[in-house]
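anyone else get weird line breaks when pasting these?? whatever heres mine. first is seq + tokens for prot A
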Amino acid sequence: MSAVANPATVGECLRVGAGFSQGDRNWIAEQFATLDARLAGFHADATELEVSVKDREARGQKVTLECWIAGRQKIVTTSAEEDLHAALNDVRDDLRRRLNDAKTRQEPRHNKHLRDVPRPQGEVDPTDEDALPAADPNRADAETA
């Protein structure tokens, strides 16, 4: 991935949504700090993160982390963990996995450029059995004699 002039960081891109206060933002940003390395490949101006919680501290709470990166599909991760700290870690780890999966899907396969190079006109493709010359019946190998 090419170097980015203004890399995205959690501290710069994170917004807190429903269920969280601005006072929670720094604590959450600390929890999500491990995402910085993964987000660094994207421009800060084109990256947004929003975390929200429904029914905070109640049975059945739901934490949602949404990630928008320009030119890619929105990624939404959720957790129904009862412990808020565990739920935040869960959505963070899921987002990291999904960002890695998205990166792998978009990158070309290793050595793909070697397979797409057209062959010179006289060269035979070894996987094409019809293009291989037929065996000369007048020639006897030691194994067939």
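and prot B, same format (seq, then tokens)
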Amino acid sequence: MEIDAAGTDYQGQPRFDVFAGAKRLGEIAVQGKESKASTGEQRVAELTEAAVEAQPFHIDLSGGLNPKTIEIRYVNDQRAGDGRPGDRNLFIRSIKVNGQPVPNSKLHVDEQSHGYTDDSGTAMYTNGSLWVSGPFIEGCS
């Protein structure tokens, strides 16, 4: 599995864990762009700008794993507070399983993350999860 991710740093890098069922497959820290945003509009613009520099991260799905869903869990949100500069956020530009891009219709970001998925990827503004629906074996539906 390949996850192209970016983010904004505030007092540290954004991190996410990857789960297949109850099994944690990895913990990834994303080198982000330093955050100076103090308003909601600035946070969105800053994360959009950081997304251009998304880097690929690889997770091994071999070893007999055949998950029905994969969870990408944003775990360390941090924010300076209202009107103060700095906000750590996560952006997932794309996900590939077995070299094939996962379409947006197979992605669901939970309400907890205050995120959304559009044609550019998935933005996550607070801790929460991006769920990737399978099946992930070629030829299955």
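btw re prot B: The chain has a mean pLDDT of 91. Residues 79 and 87 are 4 Å apart (CA to CA).
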